[in-house]
Amino acid sequence: MSTIRTDPKFPTWPSILSALIARGDLDRDQAYWAMGEVMTGNASDAQVAGFLVALRSKGETVAELTGLVEAMIANARPLVVEGERLDIVGTGGDRQNTINISTMSSLVCAGAGARIVKHGNRASSSSSGSADVLEALGVRLDVPIENLNAVLDTANITFCFANIFHPSMRNAAVPRRELGVPTAFNFMGPLTNPSGPTASAIGCADLRMAPLMAGVLAARGVRALVFRGEDGLDELTTTADNRVWEVRDGTVTESRFDARDLGMARVTLDDLRGGDAQHNAQVVRDVLDGVRGPARDAVLLNAAAGLVAFDQDASGSVQDRLGKAVVKAAESIDSGSARLVLEKWVKATA
Its Gene Ontology molecular function terms (predicted)? Predict the structure, then answer.
């Protein structure tokens, strides 16, 4: 597609929408301007809806997604965190109503020594989002921003509740709800952690968007694994093959692997189905208590992805590094370290 540029000093909604309707790509600055208008409430509901539909119909680019993400972060409440930090998160939208795999994986990675600053929200397309299950486990979500670093120091994990950090998203709430279809906004949450993670493990159910998200992370210069299960999950899966886009030193490398090659049994999606927040919270407790089965395997696999992204050493293939990381993840559970992380987290937010 061609890139159609408006005057970057004087963009307008007619010029932006005309470009997209003509199936032209916006540059990063144009996308940033449009998102800035949305975030500050200067765009009408009709303009927001028109922009999101036209962009989705054409198909987003890395430059466009980068501009949108940068504008969203610029309008977020900041969280300054020093040192290395990891986020493990999924886009959602796979509509498979699985257990909270990324949340459990975050606890396991924290138990294995990775500092976790998790970004998340309540459920939008499942029965229990990360915020819902954490609340059911006893973690307070309304911790003042200025106290989140203290929680991190105590428990090696903390949570950025999207509702608190991205209040400007309310300006797009009505058109998003009334449209009722996926838009670029569905993929921006994992890319807009206000702490600016140095490493990310991101599940993306949408095959077209996964490499674009990896491209945004590559431009940012962070380490990351972006992945999807070939069963359509926004997780690494034990029910089918997996595709991975690894981000290192500004480049993206794609690979595939089968969890069976890491010694894990092939299961069905029904084995990974979840329920409401209370049900999923009990699954979390069971996994952290060492109960074996499909849930544990899925958590080990996704925690391994987080540990691989967090590790600055990229020697060997992704599959080989995942295999070694699975062992570390299992040690985190079996030693009681992951369970202790949860206990400290609950106390730190009480």
Answer: anthranilate phosphoribosyltransferase activity
